[in-house]
């Protein structure tokens, strides 16, 4: 990844690799752009450049800029909204264990997301940042694009909307319902994230952003497939979530749920609740079977269906 992409991705400064291909001017322009939204990150990048004695011909600008940022601290890290670019690549094959990227697929797939990256929960929702389960679901979507072709897709608990945005970018399903239980998140953050990715939603758009509180709000009856990422984090929600999945299965054959395994008891409880309601649940992908992955916690994708198929 070149340095500009690394900066867009907000890669931790200790891990930044400064390539010689990017000119200082390119780097400088990028830093000035990021400074508008995340001055603290720029301060840390400049400090790293100084520590590594890079760009020796341009130290005046680097030092001057660093000095102007000396007073910037990360005290507002929990409320700061940043714009993060996530990069995805197609894998070479569809194997469960191979994670080799297809370097010949030179098309760079990226999704930009406004989010509060340091936030775990606010205003009663965990949807203001992107969670690892959604990154794995994005990878899965890329490897299985055909599943979504000409389909009506429903995403539950979409949070920042990253999975639906990626899906719209690579496959453009017939219709996509992008939903979350938090109406403020839907009307503000979700709308902004679609705009940030230049995905237009006019009146005839196939993209429908709406509030859908599990087992309370109406499920669209024309859906073909359901997706959801990191919506299995709280066992007290399983009854309503699983009732909602059961209702979805009266309209469509499968739900694909990507779950981070933080606690085996919670995972077991999700599995047993689906079974209790007469649904089949099958593990179809998991990160800890892969030869290598950048994701930290194990993530599993479950295929949930009504009858054995
Ligand atoms: C951990 S976040 C995951 C967000 C996103 N899918 C991701 O992986 O980045 C869980 C999401 O589920 C939503 N949620 C929680 N309870 C819900 C409910 N009862 N009905 C609908 N959405 C709910 C939250 O608002 C939040 O956006």
Automatic annotation (TrEMBL):
Gene3D superfamilies: Vaccinia Virus protein VP39
One Pfam family per UniProt: Methyltransf_16
PANTHER family with a match to the protein in the record: HEPATOCELLULAR CARCINOMA-ASSOCIATED ANTIGEN, PROTEIN-LYSINE N-METHYLTRANSFERASE EEF2KMT
InterPro entries in the record: Methyltransf_16, SAM-dependent_MTases_sf
Statement: the UniProt record of this protein carries the keyword Nucleus: no
The protein, known as: FAM86 N-terminal domain-containing protein
Biological classification of the source: Eukaryota, Fungi, Dikarya, Ascomycota, Saccharomycotina
GO cellular component terms, semicolon-separated: cytoplasm
Keywords, alphabetical: Transferase
Organism: Maudiozyma barnettii
GO molecular function, one term: S-adenosylmethionine-dependent methyltransferase activity
Nuclease as UniProt keyword: no
């Amino acid at each position: 990844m070149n340095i500009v992409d690394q900066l867009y991705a907000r890669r931790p400064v200790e891990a930044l690799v400064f390539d010689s291909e990017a000119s200082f001017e390119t780097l400088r322009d990028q830093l000035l752009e990021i400074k508008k939204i995340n001055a603290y990150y720029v301060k840390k990048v400049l400090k790293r450049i100084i520590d590594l004695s890079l760009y020796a011909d341009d130290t005046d600008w680097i030092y001057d800029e660093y000095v102007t940022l000396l007073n910037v601290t990360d005290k507002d890290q929990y409320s700061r909204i940043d714009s993060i670019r996530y990069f995805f690549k197609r894998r070479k094959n569809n194997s469960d264990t191979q994670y080799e990227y297809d370097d010949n697929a030179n098309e760079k797939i990226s999704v930009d997301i406004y989010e509060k990256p340091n936030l775990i929960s606010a205003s009663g929702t965990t949807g203001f940042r992107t969670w690892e389960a959604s990154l794995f679901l994005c990878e899965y979507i890329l490897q299985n694009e055909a599943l979504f072709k000409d389909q009506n897709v429903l995403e539950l608990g979409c949070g920042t909307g990253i999975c639906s945005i990626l899906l719209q970018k690579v496959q453009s399903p017939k219709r996509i319902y992008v939903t979350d239980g938090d109406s403020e998140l839907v009307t503000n953050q979700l709308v902004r994230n679609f705009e940030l990715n230049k995905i237009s939603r006019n009146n005839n758009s196939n993209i429908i952003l709406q509030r859908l509180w599990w087992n309370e709000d109406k499920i669209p009856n024309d859906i073909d497939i359901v997706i959801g990422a990191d919506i299995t984090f709280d066992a007290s929600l399983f009854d309503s979530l699983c009732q909602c999945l059961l209702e979805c299965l009266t309209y469509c054959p499968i739900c694909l749920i990507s779950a981070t395994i933080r606690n085996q008891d919670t995972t077991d409880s999700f599995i047993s609740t689906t079974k209790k309601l007469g649904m089949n649940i099958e593990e179809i992908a998991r990160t800890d079977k892969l030869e290598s992955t950048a994701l930290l916690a194990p993530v599993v994708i479950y295929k949930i269906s009504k009858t054995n198929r």
